[in-house]
Amino acid sequence: MIFVADEIPPELRRIVEFLNSQMDPAEVLAVEVKQYMGQQLRALVPSIVGQTAEAQRKKGSAAGPRSPASEHMQSYQTFFAELLRDLKAEMPTATNATRTQPASWYMFSLGRSYVSLYWGFTNDQRFRVDVYIDTPDEAKNLAIFDALAGQKDAIDHELGFATEWDRSTTTRVKRITAYYSKSISIQSPSAELLDLKAWAVSTSIRFVEAFRPRLRALAA
After folding, report:
1. Closest by CA position to 80, among listed 129, 35, 44, 114
2. How far apart are CA 213 and CA 111, in angstroms?
């Protein structure tokens, strides 16, 4: 049995994990499919929810071997897993997310459908924290973005730093961004990645505190 949606809520995640742990040899999964737009291209990125370690152990023999992610991509997954752990240690209410994937970015809901907190390494050796607005309706994305932009001065004052606002009309996605000040990549020395994690945790907490209540107020 498979559930497919653009966002899997925590309640369904728990139900799927419970059913998947109880049903043997049958398997119950949820597939979360995120859509990303850029440069007039669209990418659909699926991630599987519901495969607990115990369920995979029980059913692994029937599933056959899987191709492992490359060591480089596994480095991303490890980095974001540690960053997610550190964020939740400092701010348990930030997210219910528990799983990361072998990719150069990660995101979780900011409390409104299709609006996420985004972490990502860029191709030009930068790291960004975004409010990532990507509903299926570009007009709605603009409406959300513009409503927040009307509070930009107050938001930047609350954050304690200036943010970059991308209202591009050539892509559906709208972003509000803070960039790490130093050049960085997943292959940077461990000490530099530790500094990056500390910055990302601090910045993410400020983003959640500044944007989540505003987004919920817009949805009311």
Report:
1. 129
2. 8
User: What's the Rg (C-alpha) of the chain?
Assistant: 18
pLDDT digits (tens, 9 = 90+) for 103-152: 999 999 998 889 999 999 999 999 999 999 999 899 999 999 999 999 99
Domain boundaries for CATH 3.30.1460 within the chain? 71-219
190-219 and 152-159 helices, crossing angle to 10°: 140
How is residue 113 annotated by DSSP? T
pTM: 0.70
Strand boundaries in the chain, DSSP class E:
2-5, 29-38, 41-49, 105-112, 115-121, 127-133, 164-166, 174-179
- Architecture of the structural domain at 71-219: 2-Layer Sandwich (3.30)
Q: Using the structure block, give the residue that is written with the tokens 């528990």.
A: 98
Rounded to an integer, what distance in angstroms lies between the CA atom of residue 30 and that of residue 17? 9
